[in-house]
Amino acid sequence: MGRLIAVVLFIAVLVPGVLLARGWALAAGRRAVASASIEFTSPTEEGRRTLRRQAVHGRRVRRIGLLLGLVAVVGSIVVFAEASVFLWAPAVAVGLLVGVVLAEATRPRPRWQSARPVRRPRRGEQISLWLLWTMRAVVVAEVLATVLLWQRDDLPDRVAWLALGVPLGAWLLAEVALLRALVRPLPAEGADVPVDEALRTWTAHLVSAAVSVLALLPLGALLLVAGVGLGDRVSEGVDLWPVALVAGGFSALAAGLAVAVFLVTWLRPMRLSERALAG
Question: Highest taxon of the source (predicted)?
């Protein structure tokens, strides 16, 4: 009976990760709608320049993120010596993800005229609130898991500071990007509104996905460490905590990898089709 309960619990804990992956799969519909809205309109010349400027900015800052990742690799070699070989790929990945968030947080403001009176879209028009709040909840869960393991001396100080600093720093940058996208007024020219809405949609999804990955993968690793540690403990009867923690770890890792795949699809810049350029 105890094994059956453990199996059921393991499957149940995997469900949130599956739901999160499905939520990001459904978000692809927003990307398709935003892209189509640009194709069926003819933006102004300023709108076209804005799209080109935003694409160039994104590529430049993401290259800075790659450079940060390479610097992190060098830093890991200095700090961890031979053991750092296992950290090279994660360090580069973290640098790239931080570059994605930094690019969105520092996007240049469009130079088109704002509508009068000032009008702003609602947050729910840019991204599913469920995905947004899940990103925030995952960051909180990762921070709590890090603090608890740190207090139990299950994490070295250097690892704990990294596990706290990277997700929290990326989350703060993401909130800056989300706030900028929310408070920016709509353009005065109706032909530029689809471009503006698409830019907001891209920003909201890029930062939410990047921060989710930066929090989910460390959270999964921390839960696995905690679950394995509890599994080595001798206890009477059936102890379900190790099963729940290991299942949660696998769920977080799988969800993080799934969100990373969807993030790649959002990295492709928006382009004006020949139909839009023809007016």
Answer: Bacteria
